Amino acid sequence: MIDFDDSSTFPNIIRQWVLNQKNYFLSRFDKKDFREWWELEHQLCDIRLWEQSFIQQYIEENLEIEVAVWHTTRIEDRDSYTKNGIVVMEGRGSKVEANLICLFQRIGMKENQIREVFEHIYYLWNRDKSTRTNSVHFFVNKEFVYNNDQMNAFALNLGGECVRWAIESINRELFKTEPYKRLWIIGTLSIIKFKCRLGEMDKHTREMLVAEIVKYYIVTELYELPYKFEFTGRKEGKVKPEDIIVIEEIKGFIEMQEKYDDYQNFYDELKHN
Question: Which of 1, 158, 161, 254 is 20 to 30 A away from residue 188, measured at CA?
Answer without folding.
Answer: 1
